[in-house]
Amino acid sequence: MTSAGNSMRNLVVAGACGAVVGAMIALSYAAVPLYDWFCRTTGFAGTTQVARAAPAQTLARKITVRFDANVAGGLPWRFEPEVTAIDVRLGEVVTVYYAVVNEAARETTGQAAYNVAPLTVGAYFQKINCFCFTDQRMKAGERREMAVVFYLDPALAQDAEHDDLNTITLSYTFYPVRAPQHSALAAGRT
């Protein structure tokens, strides 16, 4: 093979490698929003749905919804549901409160994540309002009530896989949010 042929082959291989690397980088940036969209659309991994309004109908079938509250290490908060379980009719809009107390002697910030169990009911658990995924800044000793408004989609009654479903658990965990560290240069000091 000639020198010109080798150079051309090397350019093609380099171009193909560059295209593969570029595609991998693009996919890595798209992975998080695509996974989030997939979970919200399918209810995968217990991801609940976001509803804008109440359903048109309420059914007689009731399911017990249990409430779980957790605080990750490093966040000095007490966090608990005001009720541990309620019976909810399919399609009934319910408001439940969680009590949060900052037990630290300083201001702290946390953010809640949630899931439902069993994981397959996420597609039917419709939240209208929630305190999750929003920074919650609390002063030393502050106590706050945080509401979650939800309903169980009446379509759950048509899902034969869930005919024996009697209990759903809504679980929240608060994680600490660290305040950004400001460098001396960012603060205008040198």
What does this structure look like?
This protein is of the alpha+beta class. It is built from one helix and ten strands, in the order H-E-E-E-E-E-E-E-E-E-E. The protein has one helix spanning 3-42, and strands at 49-50, 62-71, 77-81, 85-89, 94-102, 108-117, 125-129, 136-138, 143-152, 167-176. The strands form two sheets. The chain has a five-stranded mixed sheet with strand order 1-7-9-5-3, with no helix packed on it. Strands 4-2-10-6-8 form a five-stranded mixed sheet, with no helix packed on it. The radius of gyration is 24 Å and the shape is flat.
List the defining traits of the structure above.
190 residues, single chain, alpha+beta, 2 domains, 5-stranded mixed β-sheet, Ctag/Cox11 (Pfam 04442)
The first-to-last residue Cα distance is 62 Å
For this structure, what is the CATH homologous superfamily of the largest domain?
Ctag/Cox11
What name does the CATH topology of the largest domain carry?
Ctag/Cox11 (Pfam 04442)
Binned strand content: 35-45%
Major beta sheet summary: 5 strands, mixed
Please work out how many helical segments DSSP would assign. 1
How would you describe the shape?
A: flat
Q: Provide the domain count.
A: 2
SSE succession: HEEEEEEEEEE
Strand order of the largest sheet: 1-7-9-5-3
Helix content: 10-25%
For the record, what CATH class of the largest domain applies?
Mainly Beta
Any low-confidence stretches, pLDDT <50, length ≥5? 42-46
Alpha-carbon Rg, integer: 24 Å
CATH architectural designation of the largest domain: Sandwich
Overall mean pLDDT: 83
